[in-house]
Amino acid sequence: MSLANDGARGGDGSAEGRAGGRSQGIVHSYPLLVRDHGLATALRLLVETLPYALARWGVLLASAVACVVWIAIGAGGAAWLGMHVAMTFGVCWLLGVLLAGGWIWGAVLRYAFHMIACGHVAVLTELITQGHVGNGNEGQFTYGRRIVVARFGEVAALFGLGALVRGVLKAFHNTLDTLGEWLPTPGVGTIVGLVNAILAAATRYLDKVVLSYDLARGGDDPWRNVRDGLVYYCQNARPILETSIWMLILERALSILFWLLLLVPAGLATMVLPEPIRENGALVTVVVAALLASTLRAAFIKPLFLVCMMIRFHALVQDQPINASWVGYLDGLSDKFRQIRR
């Protein structure tokens, strides 16, 4: 894979060598008080916005418990209907419960997580650029929702924005993922898999990073800001993806560490469960520990690395001219970028 092809020129942030290097000049002006994207700085900002992390964790724990109960209802009801009525009714019950649970997850829980994440980004952006949240007279949750709604009319509009941004990023990343075609040799598949994981990790954070750029830049056209944010990412793909590499490694390492540490309390919890469940105590302990670790990962580890990526992006684009050539390139690359332009 080469980040020096059409999809990733300008690893130093200039992008001047691409297609004649037509520059629009610097298109934004906002303060930046935090430039260090190290873990210590990110951890400090995460602690300052702890209410959002705790809210996310609370929703995750509640949804995990509800998921277990829902599955038990579905499996138990299906077994009872299969034994006492007919197997067909049991299968229909199970499918109905699963479909209803999927709808609830997609329509309710995802919206709740989306609201929390967008508000968190708004507060973090204020801390990174201004050093404080608003005028100090309103709480973080109130401020986060007010700012995001003011920018997009309603937070639900950001569902569509996130999908568009991820679509553009996926199309751009596909132009980078040519290693498997160039080197069809043993072992390359593993490398390509790692590359895909890194690109997926970058995509996971960058829709929120682009939102942060819009909030920091301000103005009366958030969609223009989103377009420029995507162009800035392309101009700085190399350093951003380099940051994504160590982020991915540390995220996986911390997730495994959390899971290992949680095996002890999960084992203790298994000991107080009913006898039929304790017969499969090892499996139950592993599953409970994994469930708890996944909630901690989503509530604390992912936001930690989101902060790192946000700071890295803002530091890279500060005082950087935007390369107009990238607009035409992305227009031809993805229809989703053209939708954002409209």
Please tell me about this protein's structure:
The structure is a single chain. The protein has one domain (39-341). α3 (87-129) crosses α7. The chain is mainly alpha-helical. The longest helix has 43 residues, at 87-129. The protein has 13 helices and no strands. The two termini are 32 Å apart. It has helices at 39-48, 50-84, 87-129, 140-152, 157-176, 179-182, 188-217, 222-235, 237-271, 275-278, 281-317, 325-333, 335-341. 76% of the residues lie in helices and 0% in strands.
Index terms:
single chain, 342 residues, 13 helices, mainly alpha, 76% helix
Mean pLDDT: 78
Which runs of at least 5 residues are low in confidence (pLDDT < 50)?
1-20
CA gyration radius, whole angstroms: 23 Å
Strand percentage: under 5%
Number of domains: 1
SSE arrangement, N to C: HHHHHHHHHHHHH
Tell me about the largest β-sheet: none
Strand pairing plus helix content: what structural class?
mainly alpha
Helix fraction by DSSP (H/I, runs of at least 4): over 70%
Work out the helix count: 13
Silhouette: globular
Q: How many strands?
A: 0
Distance between the termini: 32 Å
